[in-house]
């Protein structure tokens, strides 16, 4: 809400200045597209404010296009990294699935006893001499 109020406080005076500028500069000025000045058919009259506002709009469009072209490598890098992240996520999912399967297989498989003894004797032998007594 505050940003809308601030936008209004900034844009309203600019709009008023633009209207005043357009009213003050409505007289037509000759514009020639012939750099040498030998062909009068390439001359036309346009109000000054239309010419200036058109030049500003054209400059904004050309600047935006130039920035877009300049940032193409960053967009390409972002796309490559996004694809790499997706591939890594897929690899993690596959690894988690393999790990889950291995754990299930280990849970189903019986634990073989070493030395043919009972499992409790085996655990006591591995625990050390204090546990065996």
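Q: What amino acid sequence fits the structure above?
A:
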């Amino acid at each position: 809400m505050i940003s809308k109020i601030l936008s209004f406080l900034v844009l309203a005076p600019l709009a008023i200045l633009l209207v005043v500028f357009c009213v003050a500069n409505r007289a037509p000025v000759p514009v020639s597209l012939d750099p040498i000045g030998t062909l009068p058919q390439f001359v036309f009259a346009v109000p000054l404010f239309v010419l200036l506002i058109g030049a500003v709009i054209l400059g904004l469009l050309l600047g935006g296009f130039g920035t877009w072209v300049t940032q193409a490598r960053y967009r390409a890098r972002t796309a490559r990294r996004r694809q790499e992240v997706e591939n890594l996520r897929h690899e993690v999912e596959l690894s988690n699935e393999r790990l889950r399967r291995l754990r299930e297989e280990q849970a189903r498989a019986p634990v073989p006893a070493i030395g043919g003894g009972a499992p409790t004797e085996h655990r006591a032998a591995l625990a050390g001499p204090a546990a065996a007594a």
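Q: And what stands out in the fold?
A: The mean pLDDT is 85.
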